[in-house]
Specification:
The protein is of the alpha/beta class. Helix content is about 40%, strand content about 15%. The radius of gyration is 18 Å and the shape is globular.
Length: about 280
């Protein structure tokens, strides 16, 4: 089964409407698709309707922001019930944190003679949240930088003028929300976290002990070597394996994220997380 279990729409920091994400998945031959916007589920109904019309099986999902040892770690919830009051109360807490962070980023950038960034970022954010990516897009649109990556390196990343340290929720709490919503918790794009081997094993052990189910072995952010390494970690820690492009839509610069349906298959030794929904 060709799957993509990690995608984003404009309801968080993607560029496309949920139905457009589905259309791109259809072009890529995706048979099972999950929409996993950051800390919000507002696009799921539109995505489900478009997927049903296109003949694609659909999994409702979400990507939750957590903090582990001072680092932001993302946990994807798959097969969630969006009506879960526990999940929705938790996601609202995170969106409130995002609103506070956006106001602080605006204040810090204004101190460095870059005014109006929150208004500009909010105008670009058609969804429920204003993310750092929206600030980066605004800085790009105003000529402060020549690319999204440069916006993070110069203004938004750690040690930069607009960097705002943010404390989300513990990993085990986010997993609890996902499980309360009858979902499956997946550690997103683990190779993106700059960790020593010992720290990585500690993260995986605590994720598993907290009720986590799977890790993204194949990701748009992973090299083939990283996919093989995390396939081994999945076996070592008794975790299932997921696969997702982390698709956000076409880049403003003319390139694109890894498109849905264009990822390598899971290594054969992995147990796919989607066996739960394949029947």
């Amino acid at each position: 089964m060709r799957c993509d279990l990690h995608t984003h729409s404009f309801h968080s920091d993607g560029i496309l409407a949920p139905a457009e994400v589905v259309a791109h998945a259809l072009e890529g031959g995706v048979e099972l698709l999950a929409l996993t916007d950051h800390d919000v589920t507002d696009g799921l109904d539109e995505a489900r309707a478009a997927a049903e019309a296109a003949g694609i099986r659909f999994l409702p999902g979400v990507e939750i922001s957590t903090t582990w040892e001072g680092m932001t770690i993302h946990i994807v919830g798959l097969g969630i019930d969006p009506a879960s009051t526990i999940l929705q109360a938790g996601l609202k807490r995170l969106r409130d944190i995002r609103h506070e962070r956006a106001a602080e980023i605006d204040r810090r950038l204004a101190k460095h003679r870059i005014p109006g960034t929150l208004a500009g970022a909010a105008a670009l954010a058609r969804g429920a949240i204003v993310s750092r990516t929206h600030f980066a897009r605004y800085l790009l649109s105003q000529g402060y930088v020549t690319g999204i990556g440069q916006a993070f390196r110069r203004y938004l990343g750690r040690g930069c003028p607009g960097h705002t340290p943010t404390v989300w929720v513990p990993i085990e709490e986010a997993i609890g929300w996902i499980r309360a919503a009858s979902g499956v918790a997946v550690l997103a794009h683990p190779a993106r976290y700059k960790l020593s081997s010992g720290k990585r094993r500690k993260l995986l052990a605590e994720f598993k002990a907290g009720g986590g189910h799977a890790i993204e072995v194949v990701s748009g952010a992973h090299s083939p070597d990283e996919a093989r390494r995390f396939a081994q970690f999945a076996q070592e820690f008794g975790l299932e394996a997921s696969l997702g492009s982390d698709y956000h839509g076409p880049f403003e610069s003319g390139g694109s994220w890894t498109r849905p349906g264009c990822l390598a298959p899971l290594p054969p030794e992995c147990t796919p997380v989607w066996h739960r929904w394949a029947a």
